[in-house]
Amino acid sequence: MSKRRSMNELSREARSVEEKTDAARGDAEKAARDREKIRLVTEFIQSLPGQTDEDDKLLNRFLTDAKKAADEKLSAEEARITELLRENAELSNETQRIRESAEAGLAKASSIAFQGLSQDTLRPVIEQQQKIITETDAIDALLSDSQRKTLAEANRTGERYRQLSLRGALDQTSYNEQYTEQSVPPMMIATPEDVQTQKDFWHHHGNTFDSYIDAARGVPRVYEMLDSGMNLDAIRSLPELSGAVKAYFDNAPPQLIAFEGNYVVDIDGRHRVAAAQMVGLERIPAKVTHWVREKKD
User: Fold this and answer.
1) Is residue 176 classed as helix, strand or coil in its secondary structure?
2) What Å distances lie between residue 185 and 6, 43, 44, 59, CA to CA?
3) E-only strand ranges, 139-198
4) Residues 116, 207: one domain?
5) What domain count does the chain have?
């Protein structure tokens, strides 16, 4: 059985995860910019007159390799962010377990009748449990801040996407098949704007706020069972997970558009994405349908 980490160790690791996530977001943004630069250089060079067929072959080979390297770099940074968000979720779960244990101990120790001991006798125990609760609050705030930063960046990207879309200033490219099915961190998806603006947002296709949240809460367990080798049909037969399977893992996962290192919801998935963000999921199944970029004159 592994030894429980101290609060100082958890706090240091939480700060390390936050710093690494900030760095990964910065690297992902740079990789997205580099990919866009390659696209612009490609378009410029291809527009130049007087090139031979051999020149075109050499140039295309070079640009294809450069674009592949940029794509791989961006994919690697997105995978790094996903892994760091997973670490964030694990730390949060561990902190929550410690907090729940401390709260149970505090409740027990706070009872005057506990083993016939006086409140003064139990005061050191009470103070220790209260200290643990305060420390877990601080770590939770740190972990939540890292997730909030990731989501805030995605929302800024989403707003930029909406503004460019209104101006007709976006180019859209369909993804190759290899890019379509993947797991995406919900915190890298811009929050659907009608979550706040549409009064009956959660009443959709016969669902309610509670049913969407319940489905989202089942997603980590479904992933665990899939990773252990269970098939989806067997998991779907479990009443407590059938909603999660139906919402996130069946034939129509949320559909997303990739834009500048983050994602926006395409034509389907607004409610499931919003629920996943509220629950704090580290990943959800998604179908990335397009890569979109700003038009250049």
Assistant:
1) coil
2) 28, 32, 35, 36
3) 170-174, 181-184
4) no
5) 2
Tens digit of each residue's pLDDT (9 = 90 or more) over 88-145: 777 777 777 777 777 777 676 666 545 555 556 666 766 776 776 676 666 556 556 7
In the three-class reduction of DSSP (H, G, I as helix; E, B as strand; rest coil), residue 200 is classed as: coil
Which two three-digit tokens encode residue 253? Answer: 């996962």
DSSP code, position 289: E
Residues 6+ apart with CB under 8 A from 112: 118, 119
| Angle 56-61-62 from CA coordinates, rounded to 5° | 100
Backbone φ/ψ region at 183: left (φ over 0), alpha (ψ -120 to 50), beta: beta
Q: Which of 134, 168, 202 is the last residue of a domain?
A: 168
Whether this prediction's pTM lies above 0.70 is answered by no
**Which residue type is seen at 101?**
S
Instruction: Give the separation between CA 28 and CA 26, rounded to whole angstroms.
Output: 5
Q: Give CA angle at 165 (160, 171), nearest 5°.
A: 100
Mark whether 185 and 263 lie in a shared domain: yes
Q: 69, 77 in Cβ contact below 8 A?
A: no
* 132 Cβ neighbours under 8 A, 6+ residues apart: 7, 98, 99, 102
What H or E segment, with its residue span, contains residue 285?
Answer: strand 284-294
